[in-house]
Design goal:
Layout: E1 14-18, E2 23-28, E3 34-37, H1 38-70, E4 76-83, E5 88-95, H2 102-117, E6 125-131, H3 136-140, E7 148-153
Parallel strand pairs: 5-6
Antiparallel strand pairs: 1-2, 2-3, 4-5, 4-7
């Protein structure tokens, strides 16, 4: 019986060559070559590293918000994550009640403080907002069109 081998991930090779004039020549496979200064090359790599970290932090935030929501669904009609400006996220919780739910508001404030003080979310700016039960057109005024994820709805 032949042994099965795990498929090896293959990434395109990009040749980087530093020249005597301090420039880095980049030759991607199947693309036109270009050159950058050494500092631009370092900056581009740094941007990519920050980008990957940002994506990871958003995934961790979604998980943390999901855990927070799961124990409060008896108080929550819906929840949304709305991406706003660069690295800014608005977490909106719509209450089941029209009147202010003091317990939910306090829990949301605590969550806000925990996220702000958690180093694993250092690239994100998260704002939280509790809204009373209202028609969707009223709630939509707080959401960024095309950048919204409905997180929960009961």
């Amino acid at each position: 019986m032949p042994t099965e081998q795990a498929a090896e991930k293959r990434y395109p090779v990009i040749s980087l060559v530093e020249s005597e004039d301090g420039r880095v020549y980049v030759k991607p496979t199947n693309r036109q070559a270009f050159c950058l200064t050494f500092d631009q090359s370092v900056q581009a790599c740094t941007f990519m590293e920050v980008g990957y970290a940002f994506i990871s932090q958003v995934a961790d935030l979604r998980e943390a918000l999901g855990s927070w929501l799961s124990s409060r669904m008896d108080q929550i009609k819906a929840a949304y994550i709305s991406m706003r400006r660069s690295h800014e996220i608005l977490f909106i919780v719509v209450q089941k009640s029209v009147s202010r739910d003091s317990e939910l508001a306090e829990d949301l404030t605590t969550l806000d403080i925990e996220i702000a003080n958690d180093e694993k979310f250092n690239l994100l700016r998260v704002e939280v907002l509790a809204l009373p039960d209202a028609p969707m057109d009223g709630i939509a005024a707080f959401l960024t069109p095309d950048n919204v994820m409905q997180y929960a709805k009961s």
